[in-house]
Amino acid sequence: MTEPAVLSITGNNGVVMARQTVRSLAQDCRLSLVEQTKLVTAASELARNALIYGGGGTMTASIVDEFGRRGVRVVFADQGPGIADVDLALTDGWTSGNGMGLGLSGSRRLVDDFVLDSAVGRGTTVTITKWAR
Amino acid sequence: MSEQVPILQIGQVLLVSIQTDLDDHAVMRLQDELASRVVESMADGVVIDITAVEIVDSFVGRMLATIATISRLLDADTVVVGMRPAVAITLVELGLSLGGVTTALTLDKGLRVLERRRLEAAAGDGDAEPGAVEAGFPPGGAIDS
Ligand SMILES: Nc1ncnc2c1ncn2[C@@H]1O[C@H](COP(=O)(O)OP(=O)(O)OP(=O)(O)O)[C@@H](O)[C@H]1O
Ligand SMILES: [Mg+2]
C-alpha cells in the first residue's frame, strides 16, 4: 500500500493534475491501456464536477489491495451544495447546467466500483475503483 | 496558465494537432479560435489531429462535436484524425457517440476525405463518400481491447 496522493481541485489546472495523478497510479498498478484510459476519463469527469458544482474539492488517489485484488481507488470530495436527487443526477443526459449529463452516469460505467454519497447542504463524495485484471 | 494550440493553414485546410493535456479553458479557446480562423482564412476543411490525445472526456468530446457543427455552418468540413482505440472504446462506454463527427484513422486519410469532398462540391454533388466514418465508432473498425 502506497501513500495516497492528495490533490486540491480549485481551478481548471486541478482537473488536469487529477488526470495526470490518476494516470500515473494506473500505470504503477499495471492496469491495461484501455483500463487506464477509462479510469482517467472517469476521474476527469468527477474532478470537473467537484470544481464546477462543488465549488472545488479534493481528490485522494491510491493503490489498494483488497481480497487478493489490486486496483486504483480515487475519492472526490467537495463541500458544495450536494445533489438533491441522486437517481436523476445519474440519469444519462440529465444536466442542471449546460453539460451533456454524461459525467456521473458515464463514469459509473467506466469503473468497477462506484459509490456516490451526497447530502444537500453538506457536499458530495464519489469513490471509484478500477481493479487490475 | 492554459496553453494555446497552434492552428496551421495548409492550402484550404486548417490543421490543429493537440499535443498536450489541455485544460477546459484552453479547449474553449481553441473552439472559438478555430471558428474565427475558418471565416478569416476561408478554409473549406478543418483537420483535428488527436493522435497524441490520451483521453477524450465529455468536455473535449463536446468541443469536437461543436467544432464540426460550427464549421459546417461556416461551409467547411471537419475531420477528426488519429483517435486511439482505447479512446474510442472509452467514449462509447461514456455514452458519447460523437454522431455527426467525421473521423479518419490517419492524417493522410483525413486529408483525402476533405479532398474528395472538395471535388464533389465542385461537381455540385455533396453526398457522403466511402472511407469516411460518419456518425460512429469504431473508426475503421481497428479496435481490440
Ligand atoms: N459534485 C457535485 N455537486 C453538486 N452537484 C453535482 C455534482 N456532480 C454532479 N452534480 C449534478 O449532477 C448533474 C449531472 O452531472 P454529470 O457530470 O453527469 O453531468 P454534467 O456535469 O451536467 O454534464 P457533463 O459532465 O456531461 O459535461 C450535474 O448537472 C449537477 O447538477
Ligand atoms: Mg459533469
From TrEMBL, chain A:
SUPFAM superfamilies under this entry?
Answer: ATPase domain of HSP90 chaperone/DNA topoisomerase II/histidine kinase
Instruction: Give the residues annotated as coiled coil.
Output: none
- SMART domains this protein is in? HATPase_c
Q: Does the keyword Cell wall biogenesis/degradation apply?
A: no
Stretches assigned to the Histidine kinase/HSP90-like ATPase domain: 34-133
The UniProt GO MF terms for this protein read:
kinase activity
- Domain of life the protein comes from: Bacteria
Keywords from UniProt, A to Z, are:
Kinase, Transferase
What is the official name of this protein in its record?
Serine/threonine-protein kinase RsbT
Q: What is the lineage of its organism?
A: Bacteria, Bacillati, Actinomycetota, Actinomycetes, Kitasatosporales
Automatic annotation (TrEMBL), chain B:
The organism's taxonomy opens as: Bacteria, Bacillati, Actinomycetota, Actinomycetes, Kitasatosporales
Domain STAS: start-end pairs = 3-114
The record's annotation in InterPro entries points to:
Bact_StressResp_Reg, STAS_dom, STAS_dom_sf
Q: Which is an annotated Pfam family here? A: STAS
Per its UniProt record, what PANTHER family does this chain match?
RSBT ANTAGONIST PROTEIN RSBS (PTHR33745:SF1), RSBT ANTAGONIST PROTEIN RSBS-RELATED (PTHR33745)
Give the originating organism.
Actinacidiphila alni
Q: Where is this region: Disordered?
A: 125-145
Which residue windows does the record flag with biased composition (Low complexity)?
Answer: 125-136
Taxonomically, the superkingdom here is Bacteria
Q: What is this protein called?
A: RsbT antagonist protein RsbS
Q: Which PROSITE patterns match?
A: STAS
User: Where is the signal peptide, in residue numbers?
Assistant: none
